[in-house]
Specification:
Chain lengths: ~260, ~270
């Protein structure tokens, strides 16, 4: 079953630059779908279309049976309630501590009691390994901890789909692998559909169900990790070689 | 209400005429955006003292009103002193320095009180609002709120508007009172006007109409400062450079609007 579907989506920016050019693909329920590609090829723009922070110049974006690109008002609220979003910068509110940040969507959008909210927040923080850090302000946390707090906020409402924008950028390798493990665990344990935008091929190969390679505004390929490392596409080869991934090593990583 | 973060798809304008046309259209679009944000914030104000938003509203009230008292005090006292000195010296030429209190009261109550409170708050609190919301925009915190289906206008603008609607008129009245006091000190020490004469003449000119017009102006300035500052914050792009630009634009626009609208309000009532 398709969870998200792009139908001939084109996005044009100032000066006529086509960031997405007649892009069509679909993301299945429960899979970890990773989008890779050089900078400026529309990876984050694709994510923003899924949750309608941007609208296509032409074409449509579907979330289940709802046309997200044309939704407004309550329909848009209902569509957005199905999503969690981990921003590249974590996007935590600076004046609130971690607990209040994570509790925010529950306090604002549900009628749960404070006791129930506290329970859910504690569970979310536990899931991302931040139990005991609830009273810290975002500025007092490291980059990796901020990302994990952002992830706790993204999953606390138990969304069907979580969008990850560069979840491992700027993090050390150990923290990066920890974030990867969290994404994989959330997907398998809760059945969440995950869409990950990343430059980190190690991460993409180790957690993805399928990998989409974007280039020049087009989807160049959609492969399993194994197919991706064997790809004969020059862009895929260049991407692999740039990150020193040999076919054998990457295959092993992708097969995990 | 959704804050648009769509880049402008139109090509760069060429030639003077195109640039002027683009600038006019952009100004109209900005005015429309500001009007819709202001209207939405007014509608959302009914929630600001609710259980969820009360702490934020109180925090904003503290930031807008209490923290502004020291700078407003210094400005108000010195404005009153300057006014008294300027007017008093002229009046002394005609042996009428006893009327200094009247002149200081009239101008403080009707004009200088709301203007000074408005300008000081625009430069301090308004600039801080633009910078904070601008930083939130570039850090994608505004987008995060929207994705959580939390209206940024209700969540961020309404508590600030509620705080400013209280703070600007209150500080305007305070500015006026302290200005008159500053004028009294100068009148007594430099112009040898007895305290009693100064305050009696001042109170004779403290008309109710002047008080209400002054407070009405201050009330309008509160809406201007919050709307302009928050909208400039929401429109911020391009990182730290953009935050700096937004802050500068908000201060300049606030100053211009406060002066222009203040003039027309005075003209309408007098």
């Amino acid at each position: 079953m398709d969870m998200i579907r792009f139908e001939h989506v084109t996005k044009t920016f100032g000066g006529g630059k086509r960031v997405l050019d007649d892009v069509s693909y679909s993301i299945r329920k429960g899979e970890i779908f990773t989008i890779v590609g050089p900078s400026g090829t529309g990876k984050s723009v694709s994510l923003k279309h899924m949750i309608r922070l941007m609208t296509p110049t032409s074409g449509r974006v579907w979330v289940g049976d709802d046309c997200a690109s044309e939704a407004s008002g309550r329909d848009l609220s209902r569509i957005r309630s199905r999503f969690g979003y981990l921003f590249q910068s974590a996007a935590l509110l600076a004046w609130m501590d971690v607990e209040d940040n994570v509790a925010l969507p529950l306090r604002e959008k549900t009628s749960l009691s404070e006791a129930e909210i506290s329970k859910k927040v504690a569970a979310a923080l536990e899931a991302v390994g931040l139990a005991g850090e609830g009273r810290a302000l975002p500025a007092d946390l490291s980059g990796g901890m901020q990302k994990r707090a952002g992830l706790a906020r993204a999953i606390v409402t138990e969304p069907e789909i979580v969008l990850y924008d560069e979840p491992t950028s700027g993090l050390d390798p150990v923290t990066s692998r920890r974030i990867d493990a969290l994404i994989a665990e959330l997907s398998s344990r809760l059945g969440i559909t995950s869409v990950v935008v990343t430059h980190d091929l190690h991460s993409a190969l180790s957690i993805s169900t399928r990998i989409a390679l974007l280039g020049g505004g087009k989807v160049l390929s959609i492969d399993t990790p194994g197919e991706f490392v064997r790809s004969q596409l020059p862009q895929a080869k260049a991407f692999l070689e740039a990150q020193y991934i040999t076919k054998r090593g990457a295959w092993e990583a992708g097969a995990r | 209400m959704t804050i648009s973060r769509e880049p402008d798809p139109r090509p760069e304008p060429r030639g003077l005429l195109q640039r002027l046309g683009r600038a006019a259209l952009s100004s109209l679009a900005l005015a429309g955006f500001e009007a819709s944000v202001c209207a939405r914030a007014i509608v959302s104000m009914r929630t600001v003292f609710g259980r969820r938003q009360r702490p934020e509203t109180i925090r904003q009230l503290h930031a807008c009103a209490v923290k502004s008292v020291p700078v407003v005090s210094v400005v108000a006292f010195f404005i009153g002193m300057i006014l008294a000195l300027q007017v008093g010296i002229e009046l002394r030429t005609y042996n009428q320095e006893g009327l200094t209190g009247s002149a200081v009261m009239a101008s403080m109550l009707r004009e200088m009180g709301p203007f000074m409170a408005g300008l000081v708050l625009a430069a301090s609190v308004g600039a801080a609002m633009a910078a904070q919301i601008g930083t939130m925009s570039v850090n994608e915190e505004i987008a995060a709120l929207e994705i959580m289906d939390i209206d940024p206008i209700r969540f961020l603008v309404a508590p600030r508007l509620a705080a400013m609607v209280v703070a600007v008129p209150a500080l305007s009245f305070y500015t006026c009172a302290l200005g008159v006091l500053g004028g009294a000190v100068v009148s007594h020490t430099q112009l040898a006007v007895p305290w009693e004469t100064y305050f009696r003449n001042a109170m004779d000119f403290a008309s109710q109409k002047a008080l209400w017009v002054g407070l009405f102006k201050a009330f309008l300035f509160a809406f201007i400062i919050v709307t302009v500052s928050c909208c400039e914050g929401f429109r911020t792009t391009h990182g730290a450079l953009g935050v700096g630009r937004a802050t500068r634009r908000s201060v300049v626009l606030n100053f211009l609007l406060i002066l222009i609208i203040g003039y027309f309000v005075t003209r309408f009532f007098y």
